[in-house]
């Protein structure tokens, strides 16, 4: 799982879109601004509308979970009155309001509860749904039995679980009405993790990311949004759609039918509704994204500084938010040594820059990771790289839970309304205040030496991306003289690129020197490099610019070098990269077992994440991962990988029989026996593809 290739550039794009949609980042080029104004400018109007709608739903959810039903109803009346036109929802809200008034326990609130019964709850019970009046009479028992009586007939009415169920149901309904779906990345992550869990459970495999997935994706889901139409009507839906939805998001067949009925047969909208019912821990997700952004160089260094040194003076913090000049100070110098006090950082910042630039390459450098990063000359701290890098970087602003004032959320079509809801999203602050909800960061352990390591690796990665192969080898060797001894494959690929560049520029003699000095000896020590060496030498016959495009893409080589350099310098890979590798691997293997193509992988951009045109040789990647996994993977995981290999070969053999059987026969067995697709196909294989025979044998 750890060696599965992933298109990290595609993942960058998807996650950046996620961060923009959730207003987690702002462009560093936009200059300092308030959180609300910068977030509004960072996304399109439609994205901003969806963001505000999600905040609206979040606020309603939190009000109901806190027992503030009146506040939730006020928000619904102002922003989404169509939800209250559904008498089923209105009845449940009024019933919960009645219970919450009784829960407060005062005489005044008890009188209000009785008034609620007379004026709101009883009228709603008459036409909400057939069972509503019986539920109404049952709720009256709460007037007699105490909330602390666990054995009372209405103990379930008093349960706070009712709050979360009602909040989840409203969230599902409003999400569909407002089209306030989560960004693609969060839906993709839900989908991949859910498949990963099912695959590992079914195959008896120990997941290498079990702890992460358990904390990230909750087991419980929001209740589904259901249509008011009769549930007994025959569904006019294609059975292929029903089964695809049922197995994609683990629904019963009836659950898939109900979901499609709610969306009037729109398969992909139903799929989104079901995915968004799965609950993510967004505080953990934000940390994972933040960690990934720092590792990939998407977020600027000011984020790390503010997380590392929370006690720095305000004047120092402001220096790193005043635009490009202050950012370049960080990018040019890094930070001082760990024992430097804050005052010396402020006073000697410019001295550090000049002294760093004047250091010569003849200084003695230790081969140990930390000492090497502290004493080696910062050869890469050059202004020519800084400008382009900083222009692309984003500033991390974190998640803001406060609902912004808006007049375009109303979905009733009855004109613009602005309502200032009572209550709060999280802490009781009044509507409209900018209350920041910051999750605890996982970067508090990063030292100034670690920051310099991050910057060094990112700068080397940038050199690779620009095709500066010779400079990369020089800079990497200066940082770590033993690096290419431990990673000969990477050296070969870099020298291969350098050879191609020299040939294309007409410097044949220089190209041959590179081949004799590096490519030949490397291939002699590694037989698997003989073939690529021959292919490289063929460039001498017909040099052209297109030859470079046929080799390893710059981005792939840059990513591989970044990971390898990180390991050598003690910079851990982001946990999100581990999650994506493992879940994309199990996604591929799961659909091999299902013997079909995933209908939703294009919608969730999973196909883009798997698009690796010419990956680095498997032996090089496997070697790089094996060196590290020996220290981190358990024997259970290793043995499970062996089992996984057996399962893959079995599924590959079975997949050759896929086209023998009619799709209708497969669906018939799946529907009648409530079986997964793979099991249905295996049964058909036993009975020559005859669905009727399979069903008769099972029920006989």
TrEMBL record:
Residues 28-49 have a biased composition (Low complexity). It comes from the Eukaryota. Pfam families: CTLH. Transmembrane segments: none annotated. Residues 26-49, 334-388, 412-434 are annotated as: Disordered. Residues 360-374, 412-425 have a biased composition (Polar residues). Residues 53-109, 453-510 form the CTLH domain. This is CTLH domain-containing protein. It comes from Apostasia shenzhenica. The lineage of its organism: Eukaryota, Viridiplantae, Streptophyta, Embryophyta, Tracheophyta.
């Amino acid at each position: 799982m750890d060696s599965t290739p992933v298109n990290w550039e595609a993942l960058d794009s998807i996650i950046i879109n996620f961060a923009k949609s959730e207003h987690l980042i702002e462009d560093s080029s936009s200059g300092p601004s308030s959180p609300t104004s910068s977030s509004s400018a960072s996304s399109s109007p439609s994205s901003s509308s969806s963001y505000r709608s999600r905040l609206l739903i979040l606020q309603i959810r939190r009000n109901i979970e806190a027992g503030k039903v009146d506040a939730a109803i006020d928000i619904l009346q102002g922003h989404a009155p169509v939800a209250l036109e559904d008498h089923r929802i209105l009845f449940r809200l009024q019933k919960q309001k009645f219970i919450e008034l009784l829960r407060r326990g005062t005489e005044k609130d008890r009188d209000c509860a009785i008034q609620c019964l007379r004026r709101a709850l009883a009228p709603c019970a008459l036409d909400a749904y057939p069972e509503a009046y019986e539920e109404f009479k049952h709720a009256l028992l709460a007037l007699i039995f105490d909330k602390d009586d666990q054995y009372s007939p209405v103990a379930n009415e008093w349960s706070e679980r009712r709050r979360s169920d009602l909040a989840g149901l409203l969230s599902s309904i409003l999400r569909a009405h407002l089209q306030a779906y989560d960004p693609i990345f969060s839906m993709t992550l839900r989908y991949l993790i859910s498949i990963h869990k099912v695959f590992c459970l079914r195959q008896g495999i120990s997941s290498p990311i079990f702890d992460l997935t358990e904390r990230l994706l909750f087991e419980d889901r929001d209740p589904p949004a259901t249509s008011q139409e009769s549930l007994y009507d025959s569904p006019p839906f294609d059975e292929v759609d029903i089964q695809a939805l049922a197995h994609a998001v683990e629904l019963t067949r009836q659950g898939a039918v109900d979901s499609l009925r709610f969306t009037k047969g729109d398969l992909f909208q139903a799929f989104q509704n079901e995915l968004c019912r799965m609950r993510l821990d967004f505080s953990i997700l934000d940390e994972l994204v933040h960690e990934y952004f720092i590792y990939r160089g998407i977020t600027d260094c000011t984020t790390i500084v503010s997380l590392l040194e929370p006690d720095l003076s305000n004047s120092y913090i402001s220096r790193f938010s005043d635009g490009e000049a202050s950012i370049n100070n960080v990018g040019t110098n890094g930070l001082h040594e760990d024992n430097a006090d804050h005052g010396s950082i402020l006073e000697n910042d410019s001295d550090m820059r000049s002294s760093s630039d004047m250091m010569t390459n003849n200084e003695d450098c230790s081969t140990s990771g930390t000492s090497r990063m502290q004493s080696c000359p910062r050869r890469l701290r050059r202004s020519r790289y800084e400008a382009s890098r900083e222009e692309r970087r984003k500033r991390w602003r974190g998640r803001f839970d406060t609902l912004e004032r808006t007049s375009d959320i109303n979905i009733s079509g009855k004109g613009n309304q602005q309502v200032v809801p009572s209550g709060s999203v999280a802490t009781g602050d009044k509507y409209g205040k900018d209350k920041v909800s910051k999750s605890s960061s996982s970067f508090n352990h990063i030292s100034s030496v670690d920051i310099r390591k991050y910057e060094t690796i990112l700068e080397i990665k940038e050199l690779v991306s620009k095709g500066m192969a010779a400079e990369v080898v020089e800079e990497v060797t200066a940082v770590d003289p033993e690096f290419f001894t431990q990673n000969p494959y990477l050296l070969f690929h870099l020298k291969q690129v350098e050879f191609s560049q020299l040939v294309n520029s007409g410097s044949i003699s220089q190209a041959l020197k590179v081949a004799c000095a590096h490519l030949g000896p490397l291939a002699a020590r590694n037989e698997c490099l003989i073939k690529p060496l021959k292919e490289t030498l063929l460039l001498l016959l017909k040099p052209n610019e297109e030859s470079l495009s046929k080799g390893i893409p710059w981005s792939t080589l840059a990513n591989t070098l970044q990971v390898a350099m990180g390991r050598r310098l003690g910079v851990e890979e982001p946990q999100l990269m581990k999650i994506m590798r493992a879940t994309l691997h199990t996604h591929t293997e799961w659909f091999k077992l299902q013997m079909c193509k995933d209908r939703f992988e294009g919608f969730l951009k999973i196909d883009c994440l798997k698009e690796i045109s010419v990956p680095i040789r498997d032996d090089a990647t496997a070697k790089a991962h094996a060196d590290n996994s020996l220290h981190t993977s358990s024997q259970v995981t290793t043995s499970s990988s062996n089992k996984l290999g057996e399962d893959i070969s079995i599924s590959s053999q079975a997949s050759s029989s896929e086209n023998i059987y009619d799709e209708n026969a497969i669906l018939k067995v799946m529907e009648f026996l409530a079986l997964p697709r793979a099991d249905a196909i295996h049964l058909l294989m036993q009975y020559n593809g005859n669905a009727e025979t399979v069903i008769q044998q099972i029920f006989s």
